[in-house]
Each structure stands twice: as structure tokens, then as C-alpha cells.
Amino acid sequence: MATTTATENSFVLHVDSAYGPISRTVQKSPPRDAQPGEVPVIDVSGMFSDELSKRQAVAAEVRKACTGMGFFYIINHKVPDSITEALAEASRDFFHQSIEEKNKVSFEHQIEGYQGLNQEQINKSESIDVFEKLKITYRPSMDPVSKLDGSSTSGYQEFPWEKTASVPSLEVAYKKFFATRLVLARQLLQIMALALDLPEDYFDAKVAQPQAAVTLNYYPGKAEGEERTEPAGLGSHTDFSLITLLWQDDAGGLQILSPEGEWIKAKPIPGSLVCNVGDMMTMITGGKFISDIHRAKTEGTKERVSIPFFIGLAPKVNIELVKTCDEPNRIKEDYEGITAGDWLRKRVMDVKLGKLAKAT
Predict the structure, then answer these.
(1) What is the DSSP letter of 31?
(2) Are 114 and 133 in contact (CB under 8 A)?
(3) Fewer Cβ atoms within 10 Å of its own Cβ: the N or the C terminal residue of the chain?
(4) Which residues, in sequence order, are CB contacts of 227 under 8 Å at separation 6+?
(5) For the chain, domain boundaries
(6) Gap between the Cα atoms of 338 and 323, Å rounded
(7) Helix/strand/coil percentages in the chain, nearest 5
């Protein structure tokens, strides 16, 4: 959630973060295209190598990106485009249905499931977010590594896929997508461990049964002659996760706030994914890895689909500063010593209730 304070050529954006309200001066100039190298493109093929030196080389690039703007593209990640495209197509089929059909997987708890148009306002000082989403969270049954049965007796209930039977391709496409993203995210966290001068397996046990989710975001197209006061989009925010892996279709829309306070467009690069640092990673690294402010804004009349994958520490893992970070006092007192599950619930509620951000 964020509030704004205006001046003639800029305004101050106050955004809730892992440390409470943070303020950024934002230029009023229109969003611009990212300059070459401004959002680094990292070839991560070396992280699959048996040679430690090659994995360390990737880690060095990741460290530079994470201590800069906290956003970077990854290429040569070994996830076939066909897996992503299948889910994107199934997503469109789902969102093109009637509201009655989509509401079959709408739940009061809002932890996951379908959320309709104009139902969210992530930034309370901005307009209602114009998009729909379907969020489905981690189950051991979807994890290619975990062998838990995924039943209610192990603390997990299966998603009611039978309620999405009108889009028969959705379940298969989603599960395949989730499994491949989970494997990739765990590999990237090994690289991030190296980037933090930690043992390569530092995060392995901490994300064995992670807080993870895939969200299918749908930004509706604009019909000819239709008038809108605001374009389809999602307001200024930071992510709560350790890291986020984002796929966006060719409509684009991701905008990142640069250190100079300009909104820059991170346009889609074929075959790439966008990786960004989340608040949980910023928290445990004492601010060394930066969770930056970003938003989504559509341009033109075309509909947009984006699919972020979020991964965080397992719910029962304690929040604690990693030993190689040299600012031990940076962990917010409200969060120190609590579990990652409690931390995430508190962050979600703080933003929903607007507890942290205050105008100046």
C-alpha cells in the first residue's frame, strides 16, 4: 500500500515494506523504455554446470543485480516455452468465461482462488486495480521433490479442480507449470546463497515445503469506443516473497521504479523470465538485496496475461538474518523471531488494513 505527496515536477511515494513505510521521490515524466543493461539480462545456463566456478560466475551477476534495482531477466533457464504458453492459453480460456463459471473457485478466505475485476486496491492512494486473477498455492502433491500425499491429514487440502472442469486443460497445464517453476526457483535460490557467500544449500531445507503460489493475472483489453478513467493494471507495490519469477505476454506492462525515480518499462524478451527480489529476501539479508517498487500498466487495447510465481520460506521456518549480512539491527522488531508463515500473514494484513504507510 502507498500514499503520495505531490510537488511540481515529482511526488513522494510512501510504500509499505518489510521495514515499515519507505519513501521514494517519483518523477512525473511518462514511463520510459529501459536502457540497455538497466535491467540486466543474465544467462543462467552456468547454474546447471557441475563446475562450481561457473555457478559462482552466475552468482556474481545475480549479486550485482540484487544489490542494484533488484530486478533482472534470466535466459537459458531450461524451462520450455511450451509449458508456459499452455498455461497462458488455458488462463485466457478461464478468464473469458462467464462470471458465474469463474466464481465457482472464488473463496471467502481469499488466500487463493478467483478474484474478480475491480476487487483489489494494493495501493490505497491509487485507483482500484483493474484486473482479474486466479491464485493457487503450494501443495506437496504438485511438488516433484516432496513425497507427501497432499491430503488434509498432512495439513494440505487439494484445490477443487473439478470446479474448473469447463476448462479441462487448466489443471494439467497448471500442475506442469508449477512443478517446473518450483525446480527453477530452488536452483536460483542456490545461486543466491552463493551470491550471499553462504553454503550453496543454505535455502534447500528452508524451501522444502515453501510458501509458494502461481497467480494467473488477466488484464482485460479495451473495446473500440470504450471509455476508461484508468488503464487496466496493478498499483505500486513490492512483493512479499523471497523471489518472484514473472512471465508476461507480448503485451508487456511491467514497470519498475528506477533509483532516479523514473518508471521504466521492462518489456518482454522472448524466452526470458523476469526475476525480482521480494520483501522476505530483503528482510533476511538486512536490506542487502533490494525489493523494489513496481507496478503493471497496460497500453493500447490488447488484453494482457502475466503469470508470476512466488516462493517464500516454509511457514515454520524462523525469520532470522543471514550470517553474512553485516547489519544485524535491520530486522524490524515486530518480525524478529517469528516464523515465516506468521511474518507473511502479518505483512498481508498490514497492507490490507493500511497500518504502515502514512503521508508526510
Answers:
(1) P
(2) yes
(3) C
(4) none
(5) 62-344
(6) 17
(7) 30, 25, 45
What whole-number percentage of the chain has pLDDT above 90?
62
Residue type, 353: L
The pLDDT, as a whole number, for residue 360 is 33
Cα 325 to Cα 321: distance, rounded to the nearest angstrom: 7
Among candidate residues 184, 187, 238, 197, the one with its CA nearest the CA of residue 70: 238
Model pTM?
0.90
- Write the pLDDT tens digit of every residue in 178-187: 999 999 999 9
Give the start-end residues of each E strand in the chain: 2-6, 10-17, 20-27, 32-33, 41-43, 71-75, 113-115, 132-137, 211-219, 233-237, 243-248, 254-257, 263-265, 273-277, 294-297, 304-312
Q: Which fold has domain 62-344?
A: Jelly Rolls (2.60.120)
Regions of the chain with pLDDT less than 70: 1-7, 18-19, 118-129, 146-155, 223-232, 326-336, 350-360
**Residue 284: all three cell numbers together:** 533476511
Q: Lay out the sheet containing 263-265: strands in order across.
A: 32-33, 263-265, 254-257, 294-297, 233-237
Tell me if 121 sits within 8 A of 234, measured CB to CB: no
Please give the pLDDT value at position 223.
63
pLDDT tens per residue across span 119-141: 665 666 666 667 899 999 999 99
